[in-house]
Amino acid sequence: MIVKKSTHEALNMALREEMTRDERVVILGEEVGQYNGVHYVTRGLYAEFGKDRVMDTPISEESFVGIGVGMAIMGQRPVVEMMRMDFALRAMDQVYNHMAKIRYMSGGRLAVPMVLRGPEGPGPNPGLTAQHGQQLTAVFAHCPGLRVVSPSNQYDAKGMLKAAIRSDDPVVFLEPGPLNNKQGEVDDGEYLVPLDQADTKREGSDITLIGYGASVALCLQAAHELERDGVSAEVVDMRCLRPLDMAPALASVHKTNHAVVVDYAWQSYGPGAEIVARLMAEGFWDLEKPVTRVAGKETPLPYAANLEELSKPSVEEIVAEAKRSLGN
Amino acid sequence: MIVKKSTHEALNMALREEMTRDERVVILGEEVGQYNGVHYVTRGLYAEFGKDRVMDTPISEESFVGIGVGMAIMGQRPVVEMMRMDFALRAMDQVYNHMAKIRYMSGGRLAVPMVLRGPEGPGPNPGLTAQHGQQLTAVFAHCPGLRVVSPSNQYDAKGMLKAAIRSDDPVVFLEPGPLNNKQGEVDDGEYLVPLDQADTKREGSDITLIGYGASVALCLQAAHELERDGVSAEVVDMRCLRPLDMAPALASVHKTNHAVVVDYAWQSYGPGAEIVARLMAEGFWDLEKPVTRVAGKETPLPYAANLEELSKPSVEEIVAEAKRSLGN
Amino acid sequence: MSARPQPKLSPSPATAAARFPLDAATLRNYLRQIVMMREFERLGEREFKSGLIRGYYHSYAGQEAVGVGFVNSLDLNRDYIVDHYRDHGHMLLSGMDPERIYAELFGRRNGVSKGKGGSMHMYSPENHFLGGDGIVGGGIPVATGVGLALKQQKRDGISLSIFGDGALDTGTFHESLNMATLFQVPTVYLCINNMYSMGTSLARHSSMPRLVDRAQGYGMGTEQVDGQDVWATTEAAERIYARVRKQKKPYFVEVLTYRYQGHGIHDKALNYRTLEEETAWHERDPLKLLSSYMIEEKIMNRAEIEALRQEVVAELEAKVEAAKVEPEPDASELLEDVTL
Amino acid sequence: MSARPQPKLSPSPATAAARFPLDAATLRNYLRQIVMMREFERLGEREFKSGLIRGYYHSYAGQEAVGVGFVNSLDLNRDYIVDHYRDHGHMLLSGMDPERIYAELFGRRNGVSKGKGGSMHMYSPENHFLGGDGIVGGGIPVATGVGLALKQQKRDGISLSIFGDGALDTGTFHESLNMATLFQVPTVYLCINNMYSMGTSLARHSSMPRLVDRAQGYGMGTEQVDGQDVWATTEAAERIYARVRKQKKPYFVEVLTYRYQGHGIHDKALNYRTLEEETAWHERDPLKLLSSYMIEEKIMNRAEIEALRQEVVAELEAKVEAAKVEPEPDASELLEDVTL
Ligand SMILES: Cc1ncc(C[n+]2csc(CCOP(=O)(O)OP(=O)(O)O)c2C)c(N)n1
Ligand SMILES: Cc1ncc(C[n+]2csc(CCOP(=O)(O)OP(=O)(O)O)c2C)c(N)n1
Ligand SMILES: [Mg+2]
Ligand SMILES: [Mg+2]
Questions:
Q1: Measured between alpha carbons, how far is C326 from C308 in angstroms, rounded to an integer?
Q2: Is C80's CB within 8 Å of B74's CB?
Q3: Does C3 reside within a domain?
């Protein structure tokens, strides 16, 4: 049945369903248990599943990610929460050198079926500032051995988190901060959304707007505005960053011959760069104009309300960029 | 006077000159002092400058990078060595959230004039394996607030390290591992190489090969081979990854209309992606063919000699890709 | 929760004062400082609720006696502070103008960090205040580096590293204290143990109930101090700083106190602690302990104290109002203070 | 270097053996194991020099009595090991076939990790050996997670976390031990203190000379053990494992030993230590202590011991030769075992 839920509720449904289905699924993180989760994702699970399945940790990110790795190679299915993904910078050695590499380094003798999840980017609330509102997608997506995904709506959030928990690969599950409290339709029944398929979220014929996570909503709004001006924009949600599924974007560009890539992350060396590079390699002959990017500005996230707004990619920028590409 | 030196000797000259010139310059790292540096870069400095200026640290990367930050905001000029840049994964929070951001977060009231340096990528010796031979260039280059540079020869290595030490910005100085023991010409006098200028290392008219760090040598070799087949290749050394200077590459592509980007890092979300994305945005109309990439294979660095070789970008791949681009 | 530490029973203010006398002028000053810090946070939280302050707000209310002892006893002409995010009280004690702090909280261009930092990220080199920090434990190595710089520069100051009980669970604490002893840095590690790391009580995040016991492995002097009592904190701070200055070696001190508010302004439920516990700590409120002593000793009477409070509030309200009407940063400032 | 710890004076083998008797068959087995480990490394270093092994090579020579006590005493049907990079000896003791280890060192497709891992990255789930690890301190949280999994799966094994003295300087050591006590995991933290972290002596990298003293802050049992003496290591291991199995709580043990070779094969100068020091440790060589006791007690004579050594060498040489002629991985394997 389709119900209306916030993203954190959708994620919570996914966790509850998977914990019920499989007792190897355990949650670790700061304030995930008794406190019920700072962003509500784990709400109620401590009461329901008890302290051995929903474990509150001290502020020891590197080591509790490593504990997750140890549990995973023993066949548990740990879901490790970063209160904010920024704090995974503390755990980067465990992510890059253990979680991602043990399968390969062991010649496939061990698997690391764990999920590292948490919110990234400037939201849900404003004013997160420089150390709490970063979008580090590219840092994860660069690392072979990981699967890296980021949903753009509530339905995908639930289905992808369930698929992530069932994956035998380590998955970094990036929850777009700005989406956390937003509502949308979710199926309250059993379903999975694959971890390796991009998805066209809106059909259109003149230009392709490409995003993932929170930037998909910007693309959809921009498409809406462009429509008023007679421009038909297609919106492709990349959704799965590693491995990156280019098929829908390439098919779309084949049709529209124009594209703009939209990203909350810092532009340089951000995920958008890889998407553009793939369009170059595989879509060049379809392009009438260069693909350009609208992304986060290249500064630490500033505090002042006006500066913070300016630092984020905006619908106006996307519309302007699209029009520039189309020559109107 | 031009002398022949290995890269580690060139770097050593830079350190010695700067430490002599400015007593605020101090070195911190594992085995940099009494042991004389695992890759010889700090050789002799402990004996010459003493233990207060060349400080051996325990295996505490996160914290001694943080100690560097604290010293830098107090006006010292710390040069912090990572025995291998892989170990900076341990220090990523200090790099991203402190070294890079304090200047901005303080509204410019503080500067963090420090250098983080060390070897990256699969070398100098073979068999480094998965946790010791990574090339994490893109992880650093994505972070606003840092300068990120990587020299491709001995001359640049010395001049850029000296400039990095004198910079008021925090600099991540990436020493290409494969270059460490290679020899080349260095000026034993005083000179600086700017931190924000790419450099054309070879002139040519048919195609542009773009690299940085260790991949420049591959490009030069490929250019040499292509010449035998009558193809004139220009080689551009990006050298400064953040900020990224596109001018020479754009000028070159304007002339050649063809380009291949070469990179030891993993291809997806690697530095090459950003270079391609910029060529797309700013060089599109000059391109006759799509720019493609030759990069590291997307696996942890394997141990077996044949697999390790296969995992690295090769001259043959570059030559093949160049010919494919040129349609011969 | 039997393992949860109770407020440390300490002598009454009168006994404490007898052991470590502070003169009337000093006590008046301390009282004013405590009132200032307490009221600063009250107004700040009010402005947060009114929407002018965004993001995070971590109140210092309840912990004021720690700052009174440990910040006042520094010599900020030569000493330096590296703080964590619960930093408003320490900034005030460092001599920073409340208007500039409010301006930062309001995101104004004249704020301490030009509006770019916010509550957790203010730096005032003039006041030798080298930042709050939003990363738990993130400032500990930085403070150690500040100590090392002082040593290398042959200056005779010390650095004060301030962090909470939660920071003891981070690797940087451990790595930094080991290096502090190896390198003999003149740094005081001040752990403000307010019994909680966000919603997690000491017993649930710490393998040992006494944090001094967790700091035994670093070859440095350690002690535990009552953080509700300005005599105790002042005595300890003066003694510890004198020792560190003389020996040029690091020191660890755990100060026991309590935060009255939630972890941050969004943490309202406080379902993780009991009313009894809160009440027990409020019994030993630092403001209450100090003011009742002063009344008893006839240094000030109740009316004078209330007048002082009103004077402070009026002063702060004026600062709030002035900061409110300051301009926001210019759009061009977005891309300043970072190399592009 | 006055603070540098000297080899711990311990009773003579005869006294040790009297306190904790081991039967002749056990001693013969231990002797064979020590010889095997020692000769394995000798041949490995030879093959490195001949160019067949590349990258890193960290010899276990000198430390064998640690493994004899602490690996043999595990029950590897239910217990697990998470090691660091100096792992060859422990792999042999876990029952892994030397040919497969050499094959890995030669980068062969039938190597323990299909030739992808190399010296530091071998994993044998069948032998409950869950890896070497190239990151100092990187395996400590992993071992803690293995312990937690055993607990959650209600299995009755324990996990053994092996690391060096240098790992005590990493944040993961500290974070993990704190959590081990909080979560009550059945994990033994075995610190092999061989007096050096690469070229840095204990006194230069550790704020306290005794590492047990640095492990007091985690609310778990700790002790220091003589690592040259198989009776001492066996006694300690059996007792500690029994305790951890029963109490289901973590434990920290520091074992004092010495590595004979440089840190790795490239570290030849050893300019950081003295011949006297080396000689003092060789006096108490684990092979020497054990064999002289066995000779004295007439369990084996010198000739038998030499025959044993030759037999082991012959066995290992055969393994080396067999591994040498194994095929290298197929090029297609480059992109296997990783999702693309
Ligand atoms: C590395 C990191 N992990 C998690 C957080 C989120 N967080 C902020 S404060 C806090 C609790 C810290 O408590 P404590 O150190 O006792 O200081 P207090 O808030 O009590 O003053 C947590 C978990 C963070 N800021 N940084
Ligand atoms: C995080 C990290 N930093 C640095 C290194 C380089 N390194 C490898 S081993 C080592 C010394 C470790 O000594 P110890 O822990 O005592 O073990 P031992 O080699 O003596 O067995 C160092 C510095 C590393 N592998 N990982
Ligand atoms: Mg606290
Ligand atoms: Mg050692």
A1: 27
A2: yes
A3: no
